[in-house]
């Protein structure tokens, strides 16, 4: 196993392409996206509109080396400030196969 940092980002679905572009520009080689996540945060309940991506959130999870975390956080922080959402960073272990 390899020690890595797990980054979980919940962001407005409209901002998802920008989050993914930022990750890819920083050399993140893989990520997982779950669309249409629901929940409640500082901006209230986000359950979506059903027909559009308005008021929907998406979840992005990736793992990276510790020295890459600061750049990723710096890239996504302005998006979270503008559209809301959350980014969590935690220690984890990557099971290489």
How is this structure best described in words?
By secondary structure, this protein is of the alpha+beta class. It is 26% helix and 42% strand. It is built from 2 helices and 6 strands, in the order E-H-E-E-E-E-H-E. The protein has helices spanning 16-25, 69-83; strands spanning 2-12, 32-37, 39-41, 44-46, 57-64, 85-94. Strands 2-5-1-6 form a 4-stranded antiparallel sheet. The longest helix has 15 residues, at 69-83. It starts with a strand and ends with a strand.
Can you tag this structure with a few keywords?
97 residues; alpha+beta; two-stranded antiparallel sheet; 6 strands
How do you describe this structure in short?
With 97 residues, this protein is α+β, with helices and mostly antiparallel strands. The chain has helices at 16-25, 69-83, and strands at residues 2-12, 32-37, 39-41, 44-46, 57-64, 85-94.
Explain the layout of strands and helices.
Elements (H helix, E strand, L loop, with lengths): L1 E11 L3 H10 L6 E6 L1 E3 L2 E3 L10 E8 L4 H15 L1 E10 L3
Antiparallel strand pairs: 1-5, 1-6, 2-5, 3-4
Helix pairs in contact: 1-2
Biggest β-sheet: count, sense, barrel?
4 strands, antiparallel
Rg over alpha carbons: 14 Å
Number of strands: 6
> What overall geometry do the principal axes of the alpha carbons give?
elongated
């Amino acid at each position: 196993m390899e020690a890595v940092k797990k980054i979980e980002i919940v962001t407005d679905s409209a901002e998802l392409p920008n989050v993914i572009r930022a990750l890819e520009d920083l050399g993140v080689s893989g990520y997982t996206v779950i669309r249409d996540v629901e929940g409640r945060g500082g901006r209230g309940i986000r359950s979506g509109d059903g027909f559009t991506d308005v008021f929907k959130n998406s979840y992005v999870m990736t793992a990276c080396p510790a020295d890459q975390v600061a750049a990723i956080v710096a890239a996504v922080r302005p998006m979270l400030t503008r559209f809301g959402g959350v980014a969590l960073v935690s220690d984890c272990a990557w099971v290489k196969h």
